[in-house]
Amino acid sequence: MRVDRRGQARLAFLVLSAVLAVGHAPVAAEVSPEEWKRTTRGLKRLMKTAGERMTKLERIQTLGSDDSERAARLMVEWAIQANKRRSGALLKDVLAAEKKLTAYKAKLEKRHKKTGGAWTKKEREELQKRERAHTVAQDAWITAADVDRYLLNAFRVHRSEAAWAWTYAEGVPTLLSAKYDGSVYRAVLEAVTRESTAAGRASALSLVRGRAPPAVRIRGIDWAAKTKPPGAYEAVVTALGDPVVAVRRAVVRALARLDDPRAVEVLIPALAKADGLLADEIDALLGTFTGLRLEADADAWARWWVEHGERFKAEERRKAVERKPRADDASFYGITSASKRILFVLDQSGSMQKPARGVDAQTGKPRPGGSRMEAALAELTRAIENLAADVRFNVLFYSDGTMAWKRAPTLVLATKANKEAAIRWLQQVDAEGTTALFDALHHALKYADDFQDKAGYDDPGVDTVFLLTDGSPTDSSGNDLTPPELDGALLRFLTANEVHHVVVNTVGVGRGHNRMLMERIANKTGGTYASVVPD
CA of 232: how far to CAs of 52, 190, 199, 206, 224, in Å? Predict the structure, then answer.
């Protein structure tokens, strides 16, 4: 990303401010104030005297080639200082400035349309002032994003033993104790989890137990389950009491991958505090370890453990038993889910106007005439009507863009009144446009847990999506995506879903839908695929 002169000047001020802060706040006691002064003076000279062909951001990157312990300390200090305000907060500034600019332009145009008069000097100056404010906010946001990127690169290329020793021992705790989250945490995670040293593994496991943001804790848990370093099970289990539901779901996934039956003893009390999809996932893992299915009944599991726990510890685990649907499970085209936080995402492209013929997916009887859209709306109506009262849900349609019943991240309880309101809203839906399926999936993630501070995290976001389509994803021009484009789009979605792990159940309608893609989406996210009988 290119940064203009205004952005470079602002970045230079930011970096020099950080350097001065370092000069007055040495990180480690064994480094003398005089040494820090010499370091900061040298760094300021670097910023001033590096060749004209080097941008300010490229000068930041030079730290990555310096393997000294001192450079590692400076990197950590830069990471803290340069990201005091997160990129997200800066983006809000951009949007606020843009809103003021747009509102003022609209006001002037409306006024002059009525009067037919010319703009006054004062009006032109005010407009220019608002345009400058918008440009300044945009530059700051772009610069912050580039600082994140360059710091991440600097962390990656640092190789000296002394620099890494300090980064593990002092730098990582310093970063994780900062009162913000963002790209710097990801940079630290990237850096420590790529190392095979004992210090690197210990530092990465500290991300699981530490005070890092929930998204980073989840990434640390996933890394521990994938690489299985010594102490992985003990570190992961400590996060089973995490207040964030998405983190606890990550723990259950990790325990399944670590394949350690000791988890049964800690999963049973965790089940008593869980509900919805988390409870179902815990119950499934208990079934895998024990060969039992007790329908997520925490009391029944507790009684079983009292009677059989000691014997279980001494025996080999039994064969897992397949889960049977429960009466209060949500259901859509025969796919069931124990989730209590559901988003229905349906295709409303023009092809959904085609006649729907064949056999009804639910009853197996001949289906009357009507369009695919009418059939899908009828099934969605049935699904909504049958939702349990403790389920939270929403509905999202997509074609060229998206149309939601309630704006993200809203989920509403499945009360009688809310169900009736949702079903009335469905009556206004028409089928037209293309099939921007991946735009819809990314929009669906806006309903997932945003990991911001909420009262006790008692109301997390969507964890399950029911996705329906009758076609293959298209680009903005309505052209079907090529196989490489589909692979890239799927990878981008799965990457965006890394932390949330939203389960996507997929339904393909008619002969024209991309069955292979829908199966891949379901398999990669832990969902189920269903095909409605072809027309």
Answer: 49, 17, 14, 10, 6
> Residue 333 gets which letter from DSSP?
T
**Is beta strand 341-347 parallel, antiparallel or unpaired with respect to 392-398?**
parallel
Q: By C-alpha distance, which of 84, 123, 91, 79 is closest to 104?
A: 123
Give the pTM.
0.65
At residue 8, the 3 state secondary structure works out as helix
DSSP 408: T
Within 10 A of 417 (CB to CB), how many other CB atoms are there? 9
Strand partners, 331: 336
* C-alpha of 23 from chain center: 37
Yes or no: say if 140 and 90 are a contact pair by the CB < 8 Å rule: yes
Which two structure tokens, joined as six digits, stand for 302? 């507790």
Amino acid letter, residue 393:
F
How many angstroms from the chain centroid is the CA of residue 519? 22
Helices (H), ranges, 291-371: 298-314
Give whole-number Cα distances, 182 to 76, 141, 201, 279, in Å: 14, 13, 22, 30
Q: Quickly list H helices, 298-401.
A: 298-314, 372-385
Whether the link from the prior residue into 214 is cis, omega within 30° of 0, is: no
Going by C-alpha positions, the residue among 145, 165, 179, 153 that lies closest to residue 72 is: 165
Please check whether residue 110 is in contact with residue 123, taking contact to mean a CB–CB distance below 8 angstroms.
no
CB–CB of 352/532 below 8 Å?
Answer: no
CB-neighbour burial class of residue 110 (10 A; exposed 0-12, middle 13-18, buried 19+): exposed
pLDDT means per 10 residues, the chain with 535 residues, are 41 39 34 52 50 51 61 64 59 81 82 73 84 79 61 59 60 58 57 61 69 75 83 87 88 90 90 89 88 85 88 67 76 91 92 72 55 90 92 92 88 93 89 86 87 54 92 81 88 86 92 90 92 69
Give 40-65 as a DSSP string. HHHHHHHHHHS-TTS-HHHHHHGGGG
Three-class SS state of 427: coil
